[in-house]
Automatic annotation (TrEMBL):
Superkingdom of origin: Eukaryota
Protein name, per record: Alliinase C-terminal domain-containing protein
Gene source species: Stephania japonica
Keywords: Pyridoxal phosphate
Domain Alliinase C-terminal: 4-359
Keyword Cell membrane: no
UniProt feature coiled coil, ranges: none
Cofactor(s) required, per the database record: pyridoxal 5'-phosphate
Higher taxonomy: Eukaryota, Viridiplantae, Streptophyta, Embryophyta, Tracheophyta
Family of this protein: Belongs to the alliinase family.
CDD domains the UniProt entry points to: AAT_like
Keyword Iron-sulfur: no
UniProt GO MF annotations: carbon-sulfur lyase activity; transaminase activity
SUPFAM superfamilies (alphabetical): PLP-dependent transferases
Length: 364
């Protein structure tokens, strides 16, 4: 499937890791609801917390010291916990939630589906002109277009920011500085590929916000699976170990290996697209990556493809050639754009290139 962001590409690495990334959970583990009653997030497994802090310090993509960690059932649950925590409980009107187009297609639905009295979707951050409180969602690198982003509204105390950093990992983009925003969301889904483990985490500066986010998860699911946290801890541990111990030239370093794979995929996709003027792709600046110690250009998890003017509906056009994508309409822009996953397994990615090549050959 080219339209979802299912990260099946990463499976071959974990298969090669074999039992190094396995854990055993005994029958007498995970009975209690509680993990650490002295922590604000009382259902956070200490082992998972330790590995989250460690991976950020090894990769250098976020400052984790002095931050509270809240674990969630994927970053999707933490996103909702953040809206709950940042919206005042007794305001006269629901809080505006905005994000600059093209924004992650799930934000409007996640914000609106419960018709909350606390917050409401207010659309494109670039068009937000109200002198009212708001929450701005900043996704960086952005899903769908892969660009590094900053907040666009900047209306001082009226605004609260949520930074969704799901893709701020070195297989996708240069790590230029450790992020130190007030509220940052991460997920194993896009970092290691373990989307089915349903584990995300928030780094939260403010104690009260962390407490309210924890309350949301308590009310929503009474915590987060300990089994999943322990598994995610093991996976993150393997990741940190491979970064610290892999010798130069080896492919065992996860990020190095997948940076190579992503470069190859992007080079092949660009080579196909360049054969005609039917489609175009964004160009990214070359930046210095502190993690790898060299320069490279972003190679995002999604290709944000634009069709030529005379193709009104790019999604339907590609669908008629057996390529399933997600239309720009879902991301707040027009149907000339589509998003295509770059994280599918090799066989599916090869099929995508084959079918794109066929379209291009036949329209010459
Ligand atoms: N944020 C962004 C920007 C995403 O692309 C995704 C997954 N597509 C998520 C959050 C949700 O991730 P999770 O699997 O952790 O719920």
């Amino acid at each position: 499937m080219f339209c979802s962001g299912d990260p099946t590409m990463f499976k071959e690495y974990w298969e090669r890791m074999g039992d190094k990334s396995s854990i055993t959970i005994t029958g007498w583990q995970s009975l209690s609801y509680f993990s650490n009653t002295s922590n604000i997030c009382w259902f956070l497994e200490p082992e998972f917390e330790k590995e989250v802090r460690r991976i950020h310090s090894v990769v250098g993509n976020a400052v984790a010291e002095d931050y509270h960690i809240v674990v969630g059932n994927g970053s999707s649950q933490l996103f909702q916990a953040a809206l709950f925590a940042l919206s005042p409980a007794n305001a006269p009107h629901p809080m505006n939630v905005v994000s600059a187009v093209p924004y992650y297609s799930s934000y409007p639905a996640l914000t609106e589906y419960l018709k909350s009295g606390l917050y409401k979707w207010a659309g494109d951050a670039c068009n937000f002109e109200e002198e009212e409180p708001y929450i701005e969602l900043v996704t960086s690198p952005n899903n769908p277009d892969g660009f590094i982003r900053e907040a666009v509204v900047n209306r001082g105390k009226l605004g609260k920011l949520v930074h969704d950093l799901a893709y701020y990992w070195p297989q996708y983009t240069a790590i230029t500085a450790p992020a130190d925003y007030d509220l940052m969301l991460f997920t194993v889904s896009k970092c290691t590929g373990h989307a089915g483990t349903r584990i995300g985490w928030a780094l939260v500066k403010d104690r009260e916000v962390a407490t309210k986010m924890t309350k949301f998860i308590e009310l929503n699911t009474i915590g987060v699976s300990k089994d999943s946290q322990l598994r995610a801890a093991k996976i993150l541990q393997v990741l940190s170990n491979c970064c610290e111990c892999a010798r130069p030239g080896e492919t065992e370093n996860f990020f190095k290996h997948f940076r190579g794979q992503m470069t190859e995929r992007w080079d092949r996709l660009r080579a196909v697209v360049k054969c005609s003027d039917l489609f175009s792709l964004p160009e990214y600046p070359v930046e210095f990556c502190n993690f790898f110690g060299d320069f490279f250009e972003a190679q995002p998890a999604f290709a944000w493809l634009k069709c030529r003017e005379y193709i009104e509906d790019c999604e339907s056009f590609l669908k008629s050639h057996k390529i399933i994508t997600r239309s720009g309409r879902h991301f707040g822009v027009n149907s000339k754009y589509v998003r295509i996953s770059m994280l599918d397994r090799d066989s599916t990615f090869n099929l995508l290139l084959q079918r794109l090549s066929t379209i291009i050959q036949n329209t010459h």
